Amino acid sequence: NAGVTQTPKFQVLKTGQSMTLQCAQDMNHNSMYWYRQDPGMGLRLIYYSASEGTTDKGEVPNGYNVSRLNKREFSLRLESAAPSQTSVYFCASSATGASSGANVLTFGAGSRLTVL
Amino acid sequence: KQEVTQIPAALSVPEGENLVLNCSFTDSAIYNLQWFRQDPGKGLTSLLLIQSSQREQTSGRLNASLDKSSGRSTLYIAASQPGDSATYLCAVLPGANSKLTFGKGITLSVRP
After folding, report:
1. Which residues from chain A sit within 8 angstroms of residue B105, using beta carbons?
2. Cβ of B43 under 8 Å from any chain A Cβ?
3. CB 3.0 to 4.6 Å from B17: which of A88, B13, B29, B63, for a disulfide?
């Protein structure tokens, strides 16, 4: 029962470097999300994918790109990292529809990224 | 734009106390409201989900209530324990196909 798995758990980058955060879920959920969490700012949605093949911008998409590779996987890419992107990143997934479990988010453990 | 507020930001109580965590939201037209728990360095864990047509939900020592007309929800924790120490976040889903809006959370410390 892995749920939502994120890799890596920790990463240090230099300004201008690129990297991809990986996320995979094994619950057959349709929707997947990427959030960032910063002190005093709470959780903010970066991008989401309502279903395989679709992605949409959230509240803070600038500087990020995403790929919904298949139903299980949703990756977040930083093309040219900036110190302002130092944060803890969370991937989440949810079922959709009218079932009792729909819209309940399951979160990964987080990826702590530091950009120097 | 929906805004979710949780006050106070931090709370410290002695073990055994019954406590209430508050959540307020600005737009009463919601689809559901969810409460999450976050332990330090971990992800969020869903605790309770209240549909807009419901008034409350219970799970063990936790009871969450919803009053849409006043834009408020409370999470009641009975007989608090040190293991309840964590950050508690509420989140509002405005519509079935919309996205959650999170509050900033209340960091609870239960003293032995």
Report:
1. 42
2. yes
3. B13
